[in-house]
Fold each of these.
Amino acid sequence: AAGVGVGTLYRRFPDRGALITAAAHSYLSALADLAATADRESPTAWQALTRILRECAELRLGALAAAVEPTLHADIKSDPALTEVRTTITDRIADLTARAHTEGALRRDVTPEDIARLMTLQIYAAPTEPYPAAINRVLDLLLDGLRP
């Protein structure tokens, strides 16, 4: 579909692991940028968290995460080349969660791990329903449940 042959692929990436690491780094870097932008442009941590969750839903990160086989997911989590970018994301989410708690906008029992899980939420849209409408309805319900 990309219009390149296997030879082109293996000239750029010596093996499957290198290709997976490069793709994962690109994906995680984009996610880190998304979180940093939301934090920088939002007046509150709560608004930044809601923006991140909404953008993750719009990007269908849940479907992508579900498509990654468990072994591949474990490889990505243990790859030292991805440690820094993964830490950047987890630190940002932890900071935003703590700040939203301090603001009184987020339930105290909601953890950064909970937010990370919600970032990969899969949202179903009925065939007659536009996907953005499904996102809005599900996130409205979800966000209400996260508030104190």
Amino acid sequence: MVAMFQASPTPAVSSIPHHIAIVMDGNGRWATRRYLPRVAGHKKGVDALRACVRHCGERGVKILTVFAFSSENWNRPPEEVSGLMELLAVALSREVPHLKSEGVRIQFIGDRSALSDKVRNGLVQAEAATAANTRLVFNICFNYGGRWDIAQAAAKLAARGEPITEQSLDRAMSLAPQPDPDLLIRTGGEKRISNFLLWQAAYSELYFSDKLWPEFDAAALDAAIADYAQRERRFGKTSQQVQPATKKVA
């Protein structure tokens, strides 16, 4: 990942989302259409993710959260699961030094209890190596599920004897204290969020792209950001309440 944040044209939009979340769907289909093993699609997806991190940094996005491996993905063919675990180990050794040098802070979100010691150690080392970086927070949701996230937050509060309220749950969620995603993108043509950030995405703007994840490039990201810039985010209020008052000219 050379010159990750080398300058490039930015989209002509009036609003850049502070926090973008992405369901990276379509790696397997990309490979199948080319008569390749599904793991080849995941490898190509790592290339697309590397570029997406760079593009987000160039455009001023401060937090990028991606769905890398869901708690339901364990049900996939064993050879695909083992390939994904091996791909994670290779990606960590190859990419972390570049991410560190470019000011990216890596955080892994999800249930680590089912992961091997080797994988867990790799996650800890990547987080420690980049902990001081502040340019872009890169959250990788691995063995993650939105329902798991809510359940672990409730269990954490119960263990501490704290009342379970919206406010206390929010503080106990896995992404806390980071702000909720402004924009949630899903690639691959499906129109669902598939148990991703169920709590945090309550007021996220949703954007669905027909592009398979390995094909999601800078232009596709710019299209999503441009679409987001046209949205009116009301959070339960009326348009009149969120629009700035027009000054009368004497």
Amino acid sequence: MDRLSTLLSLFGVRATLFYSGELCGVSAHDGAQRRGYLHLLQKGTLTLALSGSPDQRLTQPSLIFMPRPCEHRLGGDESSSAFVQCASLEFAGGENNPLAASLPDVLVLPLAELPMLDDTLKWLFTEAAEDHCGRHAVLDRLFELIVIQLFRHLLDHHQLQTGMMAGLADPRLARSLVRMHDEPQHPWSIAELANESNMSRASYAAHFKEVIGQTPADYLLSWRVSLAQQLLREGKPIALISDQVGYESPSALARAFRRKTGLNPRDWVKSLKAYEASL
């Protein structure tokens, strides 16, 4: 059972390296840039400052992952030079990306706790230290690979307590979630989903709500609307989208879309284009 491939094919991440080397002084990043960040402390000492939280002093190689816009500062230590690799992250679908939305604002993990990433990190740090042709393109792809491997780590080690990723890590819920993700057009019932999880309907519904924070019906609605938004971004007509995401007609999809977003699909596309034009 592949818990990530469908999600990543639809709502993947694009990384762009923006800093590589020794960090002297303070590097500030505001939350106005609609992107996430992945910082790798290769060696040295680094201070992470987040608004509203105590500063964190990192003294061992670490990964700092911010899936959504987050105002923060990184400070190098004069007595122990910090060598960092930093990339910005753009998740397909932006704020509506279900993967990014299911993650905490910030994850700080020592690299020693991420053995799954060892080979990729070694490759990335080696590439960063050289000056080969295509260096930036290779580093961008390696950052994207690290994000995928980090997702695997979070699932395999059950490090998230609530949300979709926590559900995918739950052996009783994972199969039903994957079936919803892979077959959104199917008219799923609670009974069918509970059967996928080998649970009674009542137990399944209660456990689903406890772990994911939504009822199965609300989650399926959110997933279908997220898919519809992604297809609308690609320019597909709503008449074709409705069948792909499990609604018998464009008007039925429009009602579900409005229930979730407050806008009908046409107005949502207009607002999206207006926003993109303002950037």
